[in-house]
């Protein structure tokens, strides 16, 4: 039967199943295919900390939410159009995200008595009247997958592992997508196991054909390519963009990249990505612990490389003392924190912005450091690059804050060419001849920056260390006046970075008005989306988003003054809001969410309206 | 690297800084500093290619007194800093200066991991069996029952055996020396420097303020011959006044025998072979409390030396291999990735 094709502007799908069901892979494939087709996309993977959490339970549900559209999308969507539920638990957890009249695609095999019991249902929700509000498509995916693979000779487990491909194929049909990109992916992924290539492609096609031949729906959907700014795009995840930003900075600076790290969620993917790029001279060192990771990085920086270390909150806490050492040594280093829910182990796989204070003040003594932040997955590239630039040009460790949401999320990226990237100027202290004046390791230029003196350079032999240094010479000094002077000069050096960073701009809205929404980090997309809605309604509201948190752009105070009220949404209990109040003596209001999940657009819109009408 | 200075012969004085040495008068560290400064000119390495890295503690002030590159890092982490430096700059001559608290307590983890990776560096572990800079608490090498400021009723800790620990971590070079036998210290320092890989040299160092005489039994003329066993390559294990004792292997078990009663001659003894790991393990067990009856003498010298690949060399081989396989990195290609689409 020929099916009607219905046009859609934006669609939000959530794929959900057991954490072993291949949900993340399915979601990523649908995302990549949609991006390649030209849609704007934004994703939100949401999975448990356990690799194989208790099967079939609510705790073990892995989800992947994706918004794609023919218009620009800035979040993974607030409310879903389609829920794909591989079992009862996944259904239970995600049904509240589905809009009324939304579509539920159900794997009926995941709703047997045991599944229902594990999910905490007394009777099958599929028989409940409340489901009449939705359009339910029930498919026995397990049975159909097995049927497609009946001659494959694969065991039960391998067959079950291919079920996700059936669902993917089905959705490709539903949304009028090509299966070719996924076919290509399967061929690469299983290059060493050809029998799995055939099986997975077979199931993918079976799912697609099932959509076509079964009388499941009368219409297919079409989401046209988005009118993104002209250019060439690729899809990219945040951690991947961070890794590429580091490689790009090392190439532009002409330095080898040293990456010292210890595995931790959600930062490890940066290590995985970088370890693929050894042909760029990238040296990845998986150290014995977080402390060795940062200390080896300091050693590499002392040796003249671009030293980068990364972790998440708990690991950053362990690195604290060594980061303070880097502040004292005044060596370039980038410290990446892919933030997750805290404190302690907290919520390892969930997102939060609760380490801003740690980045700003989490060291003993007066140890100021520049802090910069990315605002979306692709923006991680620019932020990582900029962190490296500041570290090298200002001889200081720099904090780069990412978070779990942007690190694992993905979006289209209009990638730059090498020529479009900023230059990074590396200055090394020069060799001394016999009659040259004595080398002073802590002599500073007009920006208060000392010289990078590499071992192996004649006449520059010198000692640095964690004990307070004497002005210019760097020798040990316990002199009281000297200590105060050195503490102040280290702070002034960081403050002067404000002279070389761009001024703050307004992202949307007017330059002045009633409410300024001031954000930082991965809340960018949701604030932007909320602003669009509010501006359409005629509210006097504007949005500014910070890349530079320490030091702030020079004009931030002036911008803030032009608004009656300031709203600061953060996925924490109020951190930037404290800093803004402290620096600018303004009665900024916090909007705080500490649930391990990003804000939804209505939450922001509501807070804006409340403040605007207060 | 410039070679024009290589012809100018450096002297120990060239390695001395203008900084006032601030160890307590009579500290064993002075002797070690002097011996290190005296062997460096002989290594033929240019001053600017030498880096001393230390942690925290009395010994860790060492880099300030060496006119080379140096970093006084943080407690326990010198080996980790040195590891990163070796990866970045494998051609540098890197020396780690550390103490028993620094490397065996707070930095124990980094020590064992550095050793197993076998970076080409020299680790000088100044062991004085006490925390000196914090004014006299027991350390991980203090003997059981040690009365210190933090253990007025005696320490409950069983001490580390540093040689056994490091060999257990698959060290490729372990040796022991003492501050008061400068000739021997010098020889072992040279051998440690010559070894390509991580050289772990434990140096018994007297803290005359908080733990005076901890090693006197090995350094005092009256007891040294009886208590210290000097290992010499290819030579039998002989010790005692007038060299009247030796050690032989009796079915694999070390046994002290007399050489002056006609029962045994030097031909019967265990011949020292630093390439023999089994013998090295046995030597590390010569760690008895010297007050116990029938204890073995404490060995000094090179216990074990073996050639094994260095982490940093393996890393550079991998980098070369990556270029061979994929070609020199092309940034534009990398940024572009595999799958792109164009909006026009």
From TrEMBL, chain A:
Pfam families referenced in this protein's UniProt entry, alphabetically: PFOR_II, POR, POR_N
InterPro entries, per the entry: 2-oxoacid/accept_OxRdtase_asu (IPR022367), PFOR_II (IPR033412), Pyruvate:ferred/Flavod_OxRd (IPR050722), Pyrv/ketoisovalerate_OxRed_cat (IPR019752), Pyrv_Fd/Flavodoxin_OxRdtase_N (IPR002880), Pyrv_flavodox_OxRed_cen (IPR002869), THDP-binding (IPR029061), Transketo_C/PFOR_II (IPR009014)
Signal peptide residues on this chain, from the entry's feature table: none
Residue stretches making up the Pyruvate:ferredoxin oxidoreductase core domain: 515-583
Claim: Oxidoreductase is one of the keywords in the record: yes
Molecular function terms, GO-annotated: oxidoreductase activity, acting on the aldehyde or oxo group of donors
UniProt keyword list: Oxidoreductase
Residue stretches making up the Pyruvate flavodoxin/ferredoxin oxidoreductase pyrimidine binding domain: 258-473
CDD domains reported for this sequence: TPP_PYR_PFOR_IOR-alpha_like (cd07034)
Pyruvate/ketoisovalerate oxidoreductase catalytic domain: residues covered: 20-209
Gene Ontology annotations of biological process type: response to oxidative stress
Top-rank lineage group of the source organism: Bacteria
Protein name per its UniProtKB record: 2-oxoacid:acceptor oxidoreductase subunit alpha
Protein species of origin: Acidiluteibacter ferrifornacis
UniProtKB/TrEMBL annotation, chain B:
GO biological process, one term: small molecule metabolic process
Gene3D superfamilies from the UniProt entry: 3.40.50.970
MF GO annotations: oxidoreductase activity, acting on the aldehyde or oxo group of donors, iron-sulfur protein as acceptor; thiamine pyrophosphate binding
Domain (Thiamine pyrophosphate enzyme TPP-binding) ranges: 56-203
Pfam family, one: TPP_enzyme_C
Keyword terms, alphabetized: Oxidoreductase
Official protein name in the record: 2-oxoacid:ferredoxin oxidoreductase subunit beta
Organism lineage: Bacteria, Pseudomonadati, Bacteroidota, Flavobacteriia, Flavobacteriales
């Amino acid at each position: 039967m020929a099916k009607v094709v219905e046009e859609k502007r934006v669609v939000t799908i959530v794929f959900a199943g057991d954490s072993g069901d291949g949900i993340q892979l399915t979601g990523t494939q649908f995302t990549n295919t949609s991006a390649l087709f030209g849609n704007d996309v934004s994703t939100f993977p949401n999975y448990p900390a356990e690799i194989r959490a208790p099967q079939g339970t609510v705790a073990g549900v892995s989800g992947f939410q994706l918004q794609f559209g023919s218009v620009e999308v800035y979040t993974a969507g607030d409310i879903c159009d389609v829920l794909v539920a591989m079992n009862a638990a996944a259904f239970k957890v995600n049904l509240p995200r589905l809009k009324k009249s939304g579509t539920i695609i159900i794997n009926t095999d995941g709703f047997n008595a045991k599944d229902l019991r594990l999910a905490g249902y007394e009777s099958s929700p599929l028989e409940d009247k409340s489901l009449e509000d939705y359009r339910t498509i029930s498919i026995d995916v397990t049975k159909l997958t097995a049927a497609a693979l009946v001659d494959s000779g694969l065991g039960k487990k391998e067959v079950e592992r291919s079920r996700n491909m059936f669902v993917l194929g089905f959705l490709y049909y539903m949304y009028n997508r090509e299966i070719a990109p996924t076919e290509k992916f399967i061929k690469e992924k299983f290059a060493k196991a050809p029998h799995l290539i055939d099986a997975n492609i077979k199931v993918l096609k079976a799912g697609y054909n099932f959509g076509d031949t079964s009388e499941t729906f009368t219409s297919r959907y079409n989401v046209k390519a988005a009118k993104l700014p002209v250019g060439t795009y690729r899809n990219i995840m945040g951690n991947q963009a961070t890794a590429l930003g580091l490689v790009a900075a090392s190439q532009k600076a002409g330095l080898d990249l040293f990456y010292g790290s210890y595995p931790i969620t959600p930062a490890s993917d940066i290590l995985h990505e970088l370890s693929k790029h050894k042909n760029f001279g990238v040296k990845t060192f998986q150290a014995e612990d977080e402390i060795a990771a940062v200390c080896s990085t300091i050693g590499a920086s002392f040796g003249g490389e671009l030293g980068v270390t990364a972790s998440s909150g708990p690991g950053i806490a362990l690195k604290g003392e060594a980061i303070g050492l880097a502040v004292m040594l005044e060596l370039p280093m980038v410290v990446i924190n892919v933030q997750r829910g805290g404190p302690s182990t907290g919520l390892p796989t969930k997102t939060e912005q609760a380490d801003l204070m740690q980045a700003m003040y989490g060291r003993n003594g007066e140890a100021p450091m520049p802090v910069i932040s990315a605002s979306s997955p692709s923006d991680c590239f620019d932020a990582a690059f900029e962190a490296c630039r500041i570290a090298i040009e200002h001889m200081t460790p720099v904090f780069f804050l990412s978070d779990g949401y942007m690190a694992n999320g993905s979006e289209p990226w209009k990638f730059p060419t090498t020529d479009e990237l900023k230059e990074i100027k590396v200055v090394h202290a020069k060799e001394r001849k016999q009659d040259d004046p004595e080398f002073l390791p802590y002599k500073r230029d007009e920006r208060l920056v000392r010289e990078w003196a590499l071992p192996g350079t004649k006449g520059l032999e010198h000692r640095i260390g964690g004990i307070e240094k004497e002005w210019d010479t760097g020798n040990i000094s316990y002199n009281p006046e000297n200590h105060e002077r050195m503490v102040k000069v280290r702070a002034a050096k960081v403050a002067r970075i404000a002279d070389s960073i761009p001024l703050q701009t307004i992202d949307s809205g007017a330059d002045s008005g009633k409410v300024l929404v001031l954000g930082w980090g991965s809340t960018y997309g949701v604030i932007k989306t909320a602003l669009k809605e509010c501006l359409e309604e005629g509210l006097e509201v504007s949005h500014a988003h910070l890349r530079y948190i320490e030091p702030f752009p020079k004009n931030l105070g002036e911008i803030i003054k032009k608004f009656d009220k300031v709203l600061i949404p953060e996925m924490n209990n109020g951190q930037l809001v404290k800093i803004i109040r402290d620096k600018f003596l303004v009665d900024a209001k916090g909007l705080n969410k500490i649930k391990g999940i990003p804000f939804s657009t209505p939450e922001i819109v509501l807070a804006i309206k409340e403040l605007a009408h207060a | 690297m410039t070679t024009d200075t290589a012809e100018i012969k450096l002297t120990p004085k060239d390695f001395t800084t203008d900084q006032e040495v601030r160890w307590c008068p009579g500290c064993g560290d002075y002797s070690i500093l002097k011996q290190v400064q005296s062997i460096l000119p002989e290594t033929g390495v240019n001053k600017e290619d030498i880096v001393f890295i230390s942690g925290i503690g009395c010994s860790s002030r060492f880099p300030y007194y060496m006119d080379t590159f140096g970093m006084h890092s943080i407690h326990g982490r010198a080996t980790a800093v040195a590891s990163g430096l070796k990866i970045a700059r494998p051609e540098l001559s890197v020396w780690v200066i550390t103490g028993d608290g620094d490397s065996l307590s707070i930095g124990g983890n980094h020590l064992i991991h550095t050793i197993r990776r076998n970076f080409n560096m020299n680790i000088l572990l100044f062991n004085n069996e006490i925390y000196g800079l914090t004014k006299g608490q027991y350390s991980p090498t203090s003997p059981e029952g040690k009365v210190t400021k933090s253990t007025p009723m005696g320490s409950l800790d069983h001490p580390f055996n540093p040689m056994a620990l490091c060999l257990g971590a698959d060290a490729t070079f372990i040796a022991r020396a003492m501050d008061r036998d400068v000739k021997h210290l010098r020889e072992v320092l040279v051998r440690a420097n010559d070894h390509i890989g991580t050289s772990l040299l434990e140096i018994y160092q007297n803290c005359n303020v908080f733990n005076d005489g901890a090693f006197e039994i090995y350094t005092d003329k009256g007891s040294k011959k009886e208590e210290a066993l000097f290992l010499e390559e290819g030579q039998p294990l002989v010790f005692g006044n007038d060299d009247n004792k030796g050690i032989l292997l009796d079915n694999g078990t070390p046994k002290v025998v007399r050489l002056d009663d006609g029962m045994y001659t030097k031909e019967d003894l265990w011949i020292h072979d630093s390439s023999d790991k089994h013998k090295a393990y046995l030597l590390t067990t010569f760690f008895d409390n010297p007050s116990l009856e029938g204890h073995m003498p404490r060995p000094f010298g090179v216990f074990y030396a073996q050639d094994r690949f260095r982490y940093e060399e393996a890393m550079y081989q991998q980098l070369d291999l990556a270029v061979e396989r994929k070609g020199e990195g092309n940034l534009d290609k990398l940024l572009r990735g595999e799958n792109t689409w164009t909006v026009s």
